[in-house]
Amino acid sequence: MLKRLLKGLLGRLVSYLGLGLGFWLLYMALLQANLLYGIFLGLFGGGSILLSMYLLVTARHITGDRPVSDLEEEKEGTAGDSFIGSSQSDKLPP
User: Fold this and answer.
1) Residue 34 within a domain
2) Which residues constitute the domain of residue 40?
């Protein structure tokens, strides 16, 4: 359990740092007067953001976090709303 918790926390921490680095690199790329250097920084920043987002989703998957709506649907057993009848798609209105 401790190993799973550390993977989740460490993964999220690294992901947030990577997102910050990626956006900072994109900002620096926009400020560059040298076009090639700016393109290099922009590509590296964009790659850092994409990798960080992947790590963030993976860390969430490791810890088993799910949105509250998914947990409520499992408890009730129905996926629709009984007030507006969205779970009654097989029935036609009168």
Assistant:
1) yes
2) 2-63
